[in-house]
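S1.2 Input.
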Amino acid sequence: MATYHLRFASLLSALSLATLLFSGCAGLPTAGPASAGETPVPPPAPGANRGETGATEDIPDGRPIRTFDPPSTPVGALAEDTGTNVRANRDSSGRDQNETTIAINPLDGNNLVGGANDARLGHWAAGYYVTHDGGVTWADGTIPHAKYANQGDPTVAFCADGTAVFGYLDYDGSFAPHRLVVSRSTDGGDTWKEPGVVMESDGTPFADKPYIACARAEGAYANRVYISWTYFTSPFGGPIRVMTSDDHGRTWTNAHNVSSSYGVQGSVPAPGRDGEVYVFWKGSGKIEFARSTSGGATWSSPATVATIQEIGNGPHYRRNSFPTAGVDISGGPHDGTVYVAWADGRNGDADILLSRSTDHGQTWSEPVRVNDDPVGNGRDQYFPWLAVDEKGLVHVSWIDHRDRGDSRYHVYVATSRDGGVTFDRNLRVTDVASDGSLTGFLGDYTGLAAGHGKIVPLWPDLRAGTGEEDVYVEVEPAFDYDVVAEVAFRADKRTLDFADQEPRLGDGIVYDVLLGNVGDLAAGSPWEDASCLAEDLDAPPADVPEEPAPGEALYVLVRAHGPRGRGSWGSGTGHPDPRDGFDDHSPCGD
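S1.3 Output.
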């Protein structure tokens, strides 16, 4: 986000900051070497008068703000945002990484493992990316146990005991000698064991688009691994096949075909409680699934979640309407709910839709639109991934073209706190746009992990500007409450208003409001100079008794809390954000 200077601003994109400032005062090509990221667009010159109308405008590469800017403003009121996206692949080969997958260790929230198609060695390999410090630093490599020329279609999951399982194709080419294998790691992804073979073939049948999941419930099927894939019996089609493993992928049993043999692709397994597991896939014009209540030993007949309008390929690379799914096993109010999301073209452009079932797949809700840009605006969203965390919050990430309206894309996430009925304002997590015209292939899916209070998307990124694809990651906080939205001063510029969350979240919601000088945000511990303006406020508005001195600015932060926990003061939207520390060091009593 570029430096900007405000008389008064309300961040409208899931951010609870208002600033008050008185006058006087953001197919598989081989790519070239990496280069520097986008050159930031300079901010408006100090003193540019945008008027007192409060019109919403976009700060270049930043978030929407509502601005009241007098002819004269102080320089350096807020610091420049330099971004917090992290490049997970550490190679300097200049070659591509794409088609991403990521998982978080249920025993250690600082341990994440990602995967991608990785061309650093001059051929396609199964790349892995590992962090043990919550995403600050990453180590990487390629799975070493290759039998054939290439590896790809990566998929990673963690089991309840902390073992990571990594599935991928080991192949010479389509309908050529290949195998579908699963490797495992007992040290958080640092090293990988010789893989177990799910299937091996001289060419036909051919395995494609595998995805893996691991049961995290207690009971007879705890830590059971499920893998599903398209089992092409000829180039014209084949069924979705599922197998299971009780030894972290060393050996595989319970082979079942769960779909018809034509027009199916993009399967994903989703374990529920002990023994209950679903497999979803894209059929012809519909999302379909099968269900097992016996840990994958037997399966139901195929059934339909929803009819869909499949999206077509984009102008530069292929796209799809493959599903992504998850099951709530939190023990909370939506325990057992099954969620499925996909990209759908029914509104004239590609949107992310989600359907849910509260009766084990017997019935499904009408699809909910997850992306919150205007309907039918011609801006596409696709490649969703879904994760349900241990609190039952439902998170979805996807690739999004709303900001640019051309070949450039960002990555967005959204969270549902009411069992998939509604979603929060969408949050853009990428600091720099990627130009999709620089590549011919992004993969067929992206990745998202959630847990331990974190939302972690992993995506193919083209910010190098040369056509090189890297994999980038962002760690966002996941709160029990929405960040307080629609923060705005009234006309008197002394009364602070904001959206009341009680009607949505229930009784017992109260608010804390704190006040400080904008200049203090650049300090190492800005919370030490802030004051608690209101604690446990029953409802908006809040009165601001102070006026800033000429040439100075005050900021106000608001957060909600109640029986289910606390929200955020506004973390995770402006990157990097000195306000992040307020969540741990609040001037209002916690």
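S1.4 Remarks. Confidence is low (pLDDT under 50) at residues 1-17, 20-82, 571-579.
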